[in-house]
Amino acid sequence: MVLEPPDQEDKKNSWDLFPWKDFPGYTQSQRCASTSSWIWQFGYDIEKSDDDTKRRWVCKVCVDSRRPNPHSAASSGTQNAEIHLWNDHKVCDPSGRRKPPRKAKEKTPSRNIAEMMKLNTRDAREQQIANQIIGRFDRLDFQRLVVSWIINSNSSFRQSEDPYLRAAFEYLNPLVKTTEA
Question: What is the pTM of this model?
Answer without folding.
Answer: 0.51
